[in-house]
Amino acid sequence: MSGAKGADEPVSEAFSMKNYLISHHIKADRIISEDKAGDTAENIAYSKKYFDGKTVIVTSDFHLYRALYLAKHEGVKVEGFAAKTKVNNLLYYPNYYGHEILGLIYAFVFGKC
């Protein structure tokens, strides 16, 4: 699990995901958490020391392409699994995908790719 605490969040993303897995009967000692990463590139950079061989990234369907792209750029042997995004309003999709496109542009401009 990887992700820092956002300014408007009570706990880190890593803590929240770990608690979710524990509530679904995954033993805590099988979960590795990293709670310093503030973006996708940092998620991968800070977490790759835990990877042994091929790794699977599980993330939202709209985010998977960029996550895999950044991981491969970091030299990680990776596959992806997309979690379906459930939204009540289809107008959210342009925002999600727009964010991903801007994220890829940012990665190119600032040398992340």
From TrEMBL:
Q: What are the record's GO terms for cellular component?
A: plasma membrane
| Domain DUF218 as annotated: residue spans | 1-102
- Source taxon at top rank: Bacteria
GO annotation (BP), single: Gram-negative-bacterium-type cell wall biogenesis
What Gene3D superfamilies does the record point to? HUPs
Protein name per its UniProtKB record: Integral membrane protein
Q: Which organism is it from?
A: Lactococcus lactis subsp. lactis (Streptococcus lactis)
